[in-house]
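Reopening this one. Same input as before:
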Amino acid sequence: MNNTRCLYESELDTFINRDCESIFGVLCEKYHGDALTTTRDAWMQEIKILQKVLRTWQGLGGRIVFEYDIPRLGKRVDVVLLLNGIIFCLEFKVGETRIIENDIDQVLDYALDLKNFHKFSEDKVIVPVLIATRYRSSSSTIQKSVYDDRVVNPLVTGEEGIANLIKDVLDTFPDEEPVNKNWIISPYAPTPTIIEAARTLYESHSVEDITRHEADKITTDRTISYILDVIRKSKDNREKSICFVTGVPGAGKTLVGLDVAVKQTYQGSDTPVIDEEAVYLSGNGPLVAVLNEALAKDNYEKCRARGESKKITDSRREVGKFIQIIHRYRDNMLAKIKNPVENGVLEIDPEKAVKMKDAGFGEVEHVAIFDEAQRSWTHKRLADYLKRGGTYGNKLKVPNFPMSEAAFLIWSLDQREDWATIVCLVGGGQEINTGEAGISEWIKALNEQFTHWKVYISPHLTEPEYAEGKVNELLKHNSNVTYADSLHLGVSLRSYRAEKLSAFVHALLDLDERAASIYRDIKDKYPIVLTRDIEKAKRWLHEKVRGTERTGVLITKESARYKPLGIHVLESGDANAVHWFLEDKVDTRSSNYLEDAATEIQVQGLELDYTCLLWDADMRYEDGKWRFYRFNRQTKWIEVLPTNESKQELMKYMLNAYRVLLTRARAGMVICVPEGNGHKNLSGFWEDSTRLPEYYEGTYQYLKSLGLEEI
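Same output, byte for byte:
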């Protein structure tokens, strides 16, 4: 009865014969905080209903669990009934007379979570049941889902139909092996989406139970522990330090950053530790906007549910302190410098800034986490931006700015006079915009301007996808470097069904002959299918998603000929990304409608459960290699040739765009390579010369040669 994973659990016979008031008392006693009157009333009704209904199965050794915790979803299942080897997930809507789709999705989500992540449930029949107590009908058909994963399609009933429904299920599956007697303490290895993880972190100030914990693999736990140790050393020794964290796509770099920010800020307390806070920063506007709005809405709804008076604007303001867009953070320091800059040297203007004890002129957090650090701006891009006046903050103009963004961010924390730690989260091969510096600018700044900073680095940063493989050469004369395996995340959390997905994507894009064999290793757990028909792709996605799983169409920003396929590109603007990622399936702005395709700019750092990648003619497999094209927005595609450094960089960005899009799906994807338009008009000319079949055929044949199944 002391189990923290639920509020009450016992043998079925004990539950049936125990006084309902005492069971109710246990629920109230173990509930964290004061339960609302509606919650308490619902508990009492559930106890009375189930004590009456379940007497039929007295003596059969079943167990019952109330309010079982589902950490990944941040929710609890009302009741789990373990009976005759079957797991029933019972979700009550006390007093309701009708069935709502969102409620069915909720109980199905619980069942899928147990199936995918709960060790002692993975091979059992799981039956999600929605009970609207005053509903006057019941499900008449009991069948497993088409996915053959032993999860029964959701059932619905009113109070009067519960007993018959349970009996019908037991008759349908009569010979099941008993559920493990330790089911209540089963290992639970969830892989949350970044939005789910961020919600749990922000509300509980803890990452416990929201990621997989496997001792035989490098996990986020090990990386987080190492970074926090570097922070402690920096504080104790009053020194400056920087950590570079690498990881395969979907390995949880953003989760690590958020968790370090939370742990450092709260340090086990319910309130922030004064003057030791950390801030999570990203230049990825859509990511920051989506996370901020998701956390703010969640915080607002939970406060309202607890009866607290709160406005959504208050929640947004609170969350905004924790997760910030990097440009605004940068502008805070820009406002304090001497302007114009003289002799290429940045200095604080004492008339613009108050010197704080220990903080110096910094007035910045001790710890700053920079997500997607490889996307920081080059010196030229930042200088040009500041010369004309930025689009953030007060549109401050700073002519002759002397630093890259990486150097300036280090400089900003270097203004602290006590100690500081920077954590750079680095995605390999994910620079997708002109003017993104990669990781070399950070290292250059440390070598030339901040030689007193301690550098802790993942050995994988020396691989070709980071700084063109020149990291060793760049750091060979830096005596402050420590290499640490703990700073690499090698296991994909995003694709919980296929940890080798990132290896497959790398091999596919690198035209590595091992791509086909890697795909053979993952295809049973992680389906990747191929089609020429966008409508078939959409149907495949609709048939895959269940509950509140998300799906969406992805496309590169260089794609141009998608309108003939009935696809529109999601308009730029963070608000559009927020709607695309967060609205549910009844809202036409949602990704689930499969009408608006998001680009690499809008989805980097975020994820969906299933995706369709629409592969246009901007990157084509021809003559055994990738060739790159840009559409002139009028009549034709023009090939991008490596004639100079900027063109070579553009080709790298275009390849990386597909790398990003190919690694957004957690559970599976369909790749649609259009057939093009092979028709000619009466005069013998092509009907649409911008979509000739030859533009697509090579790519399709290459992907098919890797073993991808065509639908």
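So the earlier flakiness isn't reproducible anymore. For the record, The chain has 22 helices and 24 strands.
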